[in-house]
Each structure stands twice: as C-alpha cells, then as structure tokens.
Amino acid sequence: MFSDSEENYLKAIFHLQRFASDGVSTNAIAEQMHTKASSVTDMLKKLSDKKLVNYVKYQGVTLTNEGKKTAAKIIRKHRLWEVFLVEKLDFSWDEVHEIAEQLEHIESDVLIEKLDKHLDFPKFDPHGDPIPSKDGTFPERDKVLLSEIKVGESGVCVGVKDTSSSFLKFLDKNGVALGKKIKVLEHEEFDDSMRIQIGKESMTISHMIASNLYLKTN
Amino acid sequence: MFSDSEENYLKAIFHLQRFASDGVSTNAIAEQMHTKASSVTDMLKKLSDKKLVNYVKYQGVTLTNEGKKTAAKIIRKHRLWEVFLVEKLDFSWDEVHEIAEQLEHIESDVLIEKLDKHLDFPKFDPHGDPIPSKDGTFPERDKVLLSEIKVGESGVCVGVKDTSSSFLKFLDKNGVALGKKIKVLEHEEFDDSMRIQIGKESMTISHMIASNLYLKTN
DNA sequence: AAATAAATTTAGATAAGACTAAAAATGTAT
DNA sequence: ATACATTTTTAGTCTTATCTAAATTTATTT
Ligand SMILES: [Mn+2]
Ligand SMILES: [Mn+2]
Ligand SMILES: [Mn+2]
Ligand SMILES: [Mn+2]
C-alpha cells in the first residue's frame, strides 16, 4: 500500500501536528526525520498527490482524514508490537523502540488483529502511550506530570514523556516502573527538585526527572 | 547489514543449490524470484563484491560460507516466525508464509533468540521444515514420502513437500495435520492412488497427494 | 519600504533495484 | 565445423528516495 518511507513521514507529521496549531513546517519534519528539507518537500508532493496530506507550497502541511487514519494504524502497530516485545518476549522498555520501528511496517490486517487479541487488547504501550483502536481512536487517560503534584499527594505511574533509553534505564535502576505508587514528600523551591516515596524507598529527583513522569492521581 | 532484496536472492540461491550439483544458473534464480535474468546478473555482481557468492560470468553461482550462513539465518527467522504465527497467534499453516516473508527481514539478533526461547526452541516449522540453529546447522529427520510406503505399514505425518496454500487447505479439509498417524491400506497399481487410514477415517488419495506428504516411519 | 535573514522549493546528481532490447557467449544439431 | 537456439550479459532507461547547491518565497529588521 504505502512504502516504509511514506509511512514514516505520515507518522512524523502526525506527532508534530499535536503541538503545532497550524500546518507542520518542512523544517520541523526534516529535523524529526533526520533528513534534509529538500527531501521533505519531495515527499510532501508525493503524499499530497495521494491525498494523504493537505499541502500548500511554503505553508506547511496537515494530514487529511485518510492520512490521519493511516498514521494511527502505524502507531497502533508500533505500540502493539512494543507490548508484545515486553510482555511476551521479556524485553525491557528501553530496548523495544528500535525493533518496533521495523515491525510497524509489516503489512497484514489479520496479523494486527490477532496480535491485539493475543495481548488481550491492551490500551497502553510499555511507555504508557495510548494504543489507537482499529478505527483510529486514541484512548484517553487523565494523567499529570509528577512535577505538577503537590506535597503530600500521591499517584500511580502511568507513563513517561521522555522515552529515551537513558531515561528509561535510569528509571529501572531506581525501581520506577508503570503501576508503581509514588508519593511526593518534599518539594525544594530553589531547583524544583523533589523527595518522593516509591514503595518502601524514598529518593530525591531533579525537576528534569519529575517533569517527564506521568502519574494518575486518585 | 543486507537489504531485503539481497537477502531474498541469498535465500533463493540457497534453496536452488540443494538440487543443482554445480553452480546455480541465472535463469533458475530469475524464475524463483519472479524477476528477469538481467536483474539477477546485476545482483550477482553485487553479492560477489560482498563475498557472499562465488560468481564466474556465464558459469552460474554458488554461495560462499558467509553467504550460506546468512541464508540460513534468514531461513531460521522465517521458520521461527511461522511457528510463532501458528502456535501463538492461531494462524493456520496455509496463511503464514506471506507474513513470514516480511518478518524474516526484521533485524535484531536478540529478537530472534528471545523468540526462539518463547517458542521453546522448536526444531521444525509448521510445514515440517527444519529450523537451522544459530550456527546454521539444519536438524535432520528421516522422513519418507507417503507414496514410498508399502501396504500395511504406517507412519506419522511430519511434513509436506508442496507447501502451496491449496494443498495445505486440502489437507486441513481432510483432517491431515502434522503428528497424525497414517496407515496405508491399499495401493492401486494403475494410477498409484492409495487408500489410507487416518485416525478413524479412511480415504482414497491420488499419487499427487501421496508424493507430497512426508511420514516418519517407526 | 528596503534590506537582510530564514525557510522552502527547485534543479541537478547519485544509488539501489528493476526493466527492455541488443550484444555476446555457450550449447546443440545437423 | 558451421548454423541455429538458448542463456547470459551489457547498455540504457525508469522509479524511489536521498543529497547538495542555487533560486525563490516569506519573515524580520532596520
Ligand atoms: Mn516506540
Ligand atoms: Mn512506546
Ligand atoms: Mn514459508
Ligand atoms: Mn515453512
């Protein structure tokens, strides 16, 4: 149906579109894709011909409905495979992204649905990111950055904002994982660092850490 | 490491090499790959540069040790994924080949080993074909074509020679599957058809069928 | 409102992989 | 041994996806 490259562009535009209120810029896409602006322009023309994006020269792009649907499907595949890798093959959450980048391009509708069933229809991936349903709807979950939580309150870890391997490895090392209960013990005004309770341990974390961890409060 | 196309050529040469005693011909590869001889020549040069094949103009090719190792690895991946699809995702054996053709190109050594473990280190795929080990060794199994078995003797179905979807579907329809015990009741000289007992049923099968089913005799 | 800077597109090149048509090498039959 | 047929290679073209460098458009300053 679509080439791997086309699918990767659609995914990139989809993710960038959430932040930019207007069209997504050529440069933004180039940066996201680690490619050059001229390559992006070429691809935008092609995607526009295929009615996947609304493209006006010099004005940036937005996804059409068809483009959104296609992007959601790829993200669905990516995240389902990530769940598989962690749940069934015993990978840790910092190792799965690269492999899922490949697996997301495997084409077979039956495969996705069977995989979904095998995994018992998960709603969120190993990083807490929502898995769109077959029709492209993303499940919502009210989550708050740990950095926004007041002293004395607590919540359950449901996701990470930064999904870099180094951050995930740091969390592992300190016993932080999805489902863990975290309570804010202290908040240092000076540098916005926090003292938190996680399980029976307590630890101090920087603002950098606290602003990349999502909690679900009761 | 290698492109999907390169991998597919290596696999094709590997399979053709089992029959041809000397080098594999350009035309044979072209037919197997559903491509043109000129495209094959181009690729052979490339594979030769990469020391994956021994190529002498007009003389056909053979795989180098490196080429054999690479081909075995791809076949290993293909067959492990087929086991996964049948055992874990509940596909039937006639549906898995096309998907495995895609999955075999996913690159991650850790993934293959974890998949192998998850499947409990299978030695044969859903069609009875041997799964090479990490070092490229193919497990052997003494098997005989059903058409070679004498009246009164019996064996257990361990593989198929023809793996076409139509043949596999026919077998399913008639209750033939790997592990089933089959006993030869009669043999018709005229057309080499056979009357066989499978489970509690008995049925007549053509020579075409009998010469594409492998049994393991006791 | 120019002038300058930044972003974007165009033009032209390159590489992989495939194809067609023509040329060259090899094999077969008189 | 020569002619004919088959196989294989070469030459040249096409598509996709990328790049660099130059041109163009849009945005920002003075
Ligand atoms: Mn990911
Ligand atoms: Mn993820
Ligand atoms: Mn197969
Ligand atoms: Mn198989």
Q: Summary?
A:
Chain A contains eight helices and eight strands. Chain A has 218 residues and is of the alpha+beta class.
Mind explaining what this structure looks like?
Chain A is an alpha+beta fold and 218 residues long. Helix content of chain A is 41%, strand content 17%. Chain A has eight helices and eight strands. Chain A has a six-stranded antiparallel β-sheet. A two-stranded antiparallel sheet of chain A has the order 1-2. In chain A, a hairpin with a 6-residue loop joins β5 and β6. In chain A, α1 packs across α2, α1 packs across α4 and α2 packs across α3. The longest helix of chain A is centred in the middle third of the chain and has 23 residues. Chain A is globular and about 55 Å long. The first copy, chain A, starts with a helix and ends with a strand. Chains A and B meet through α5 and α6 of A and α5 and α6 of B. Bound molecules: manganese (II) ion (4 copies). The site of one manganese (II) ion has 6 residues of chain B, from α4. The structure holds a DNA duplex (30 and 30 nucleotides).
Blueprint of the fold:
2 copies of one chain form a homodimer.
Chain A: H1 4-17, H2 26-33, H3 37-49, E1 53-55, E2 61-63, H4 65-87, H5 96-103, H6 109-118, E3 144-145, E4 154-160, H7 165-173, E5 181-187, E6 194-198, E7 201-205, H8 207-210, E8 213-217
Antiparallel strand pairs in A: 1-2, 3-8, 4-5, 4-8, 5-6, 6-7
Bound molecules: manganese (II) ion (4 copies).
One manganese (II) ion binds next to α4 and α5 of chain A.
Chain A binds a DNA duplex (30 and 30 nucleotides) through residues 3, 5, 25-27, 35-43, 46, 57-58.
Protein name (chains A, B): Transcriptional regulator MntR
Family (chains A, B): Belongs to the DtxR/MntR family.
GO cellular component, one term (chains A, B): cytoplasm
